[in-house]
Amino acid sequence: MIMLGFGKLNMAVVGTGYMAGKMAETIRYVSEVRPYAVCSRSTDRAYEFARKYGFKKAYGSLQELLEDRKVDLVYIATPHSEHYEQVKMCIEYGRPVLCEKPFCLNAPMAEELLALAHEKNVFAAEAMWIRFLPFAGQILETLRSGIIGEPVMLTAGLGYNVGRVRRMLDPDLGGGALLDIGIYLLNFASMVFGDDISRINAHCTYTALQLDEQESITLRYSSGRIAQLAVSMVGVSDRRAVISGTKGCIVIENVNNFESLTVLDSDHNKIASYKRPGQRTGYEYEVRACARAIRDKRIEVEEMDHEQIISILHMTDHIRSQLKVRFPQEMNEQELEAYHKFRAEHTASRNKETAAPAADRAEEAGAAGEGTASAGADRPAENGETLLPAAAAGTEKGSASGGDLPEEPA
To answer: Residue 56: how many CB atoms within 10 A of its CB?
Structure first.
């Protein structure tokens, strides 16, 4: 039962990975909530997570967690492919839910879930953290002050070398650069220029399983403004954004977690600068916003309402349509059959390529008296993700520019 008006909200976490851990660290320092429950498909992992972060309850399934009537707010930190079903379960059980980005794989899924949230009067939000950061207000205030004149263009890049993280490479899990990294830039452009877009153009390179690996996205607005966005999951970028105006520009360091902004005049002289105030993890702001909304009996947050969630996913749907990037959850029976055949052929090819080198290494190690190791063993990534061996990650890549797209899997 949700405690409105007094006391702390009991917060539950779904998943035990990297983002779940970051949120668990955050919850302990947010006065409006307390760590209450966690669930994982592995009960052992759930109990270990609960002990580590001070949660009272540990469950082996989402259903068990949702049947606990003391749960006031559920945070979902699972792969993209799981969001739709898990958010739906939360809403059907009447449990307020904060889901990691993207809210769903596509706009129709989100529209269905948010309509259900309205029907059942249940709170639902997306954890797009940059919309909740206080420094976002400083950026918008500076922009609206007129100090750079009329804003006309936005350029931003965001890239990380995460091209061997398993979920990023798997279509079944909603992988690819756009929904994991590019969605931050689309949200930032939406915050700065709004959503009145007249045209979108996108180009990309592909992974071996035809997910988007890097992309260039151009948004043209009805006002004549342009946003040029560069996204990568294999290359490290400077994470900088520049808003250009008729009298100067605003340079923002770290578009994914705003650190500072500098205002330059038309001669590129610095005329103002601001630095981000201290923060714990940055996720505390979205938690507080959700707690306020729940206590006020609202079903959405002002920082990113339901209309904005759907608008961003319409953008990602449009971009993926141009790039011909689709997920199995969006395919019909015939397309699924072709997809599974394509994946099987790809896996067989990779296994064949790695088998011979592995045997050679084993023979060399044995001759040297060093013993052998299992080839292709998974290794933990620095951020808690699972890394694939370099060979398994795949190197067969294609690219698309305009209408020049790779052949569909047969």
So the answer is: 13
The answer to whether the CB of 131 falls within 8 A of the CB of 187 is yes
Quote the CA–CA distance of 323 and 213 in Å, as a whole number: 11
Dihedral of CA 191/192/194/196: which sign?
negative
290 has pLDDT over 90? yes
Pick the CATH number of 134-278+339-361+378-405 from 3.40.1280.10, 3.30.70.260, 3.30.360.10, 3.30.870.10: 3.30.360.10
Where does residue 95 rank: exposed (0-12), middle (13-18), buried (19+ CB within 10 A)?
A: buried
Is this structure's pTM higher than 0.70? yes
Please give the average per-residue pLDDT across 245-251, as a whole number.
99
Nearest CA among 164, 166, 19 for reference residue 78: 19
Determine the Cα–Cα distance for residues 9 and 289; give it in Å rounded to an integer. Answer: 12
Mean pLDDT, rounded, for 266-285? 96
Residues 327, 104: Cα–Cα separation, whole Å: 12
Cα–Cα dist 188/154, whole Å: 10
pLDDT digits (tens, 9 = 90+) for 146-158: 999 999 999 999 9
Q: 9-129+284-299: what fold?
A: Rossmann fold (3.40.50)
